[in-house]
Automatic annotation (TrEMBL):
InterPro entries registered for this protein in UniProt: SBP_3_CS, Solute-binding_3/MltF_N
CDD domains in the record: PBP2_peptides_like (cd13530)
Protein's UniProt name: Basic amino acid ABC transporter substrate-binding protein
Keywords annotated in UniProt: Signal
Amino acid sequence: MIPAAPDPAPDDPQENRMSRPPRPARTAAAAALAALVLTGCSAGGGEQAAPQEGSSGSPAVPLVEPGVLTVCSESNYPPFEMEQDGEMVGLDMDLGREIAADLGVEMKNVTLAFESIQSGAALDTGQCDVAISALSITEERQTVMDFSDPYYDNELGLVTDGEDGPASIDAAREQGARVGVMQGTLGEDQAAELGLEAVQFEDATTMFTDLGTGGVDAVLDDVTAISEHSKDNADFVLRETRDVDDQLGVAVRRGNEAMLAQVDATLDRIEQDGTRERIVETWIPVREN
């Protein structure tokens, strides 16, 4: 789920958009983590429920609950997070488990409304240690939370139920089509910027269900989510895609340098050992051009 960003022209229109984004070197992050471990520094930042230091893993990284990495996510945004057989699974959940493993603790998922996650409220009030919920790294969000290095790129797309809906974003505007968007995401911001008649949803499943039942004429959302929901509805048609400068990151409470360094160190490790590629290809199979 991706918040607003400018639309840069891609260097290579044939580039595989489901591949992982190039990542900046994390030697500084790893060094920062090592320094924090040696000095026993704790995270700074604003007021929140007092975190407790983990019972295992790095003593420099305080945790909301001892011995547990608590991860906030939306309850249902496949393939990033979703419930299967009573367990939360998905790309973001696998990523959270890798971070927990490097801390030497278990992972616990807490599902919340997306607004409380992307606003930073969940982190500020100590409901979780990290937020991993397909959060895009934006300047606005960086005023209320700190972000890791990016772990995924995405695109924006317009999808209709069959061929009768608007054939493009411009057509949707000209026809006054009702376009479903997720609150707090790129789709919502872009719909406003493009002059579309937007219908807001708090839950992606409800939004795509409404598309299938005619509640909305089209949906503007990230291509990954569209592809996932299209698996269950063969009539969904991706009418247009738009490249956006969007990268997803793991969020931590603003000023929590110890946790941020740990997250970046884990991202560096799974990039180097191939775990990240395996996770992404498990949940988002690479598209053939």
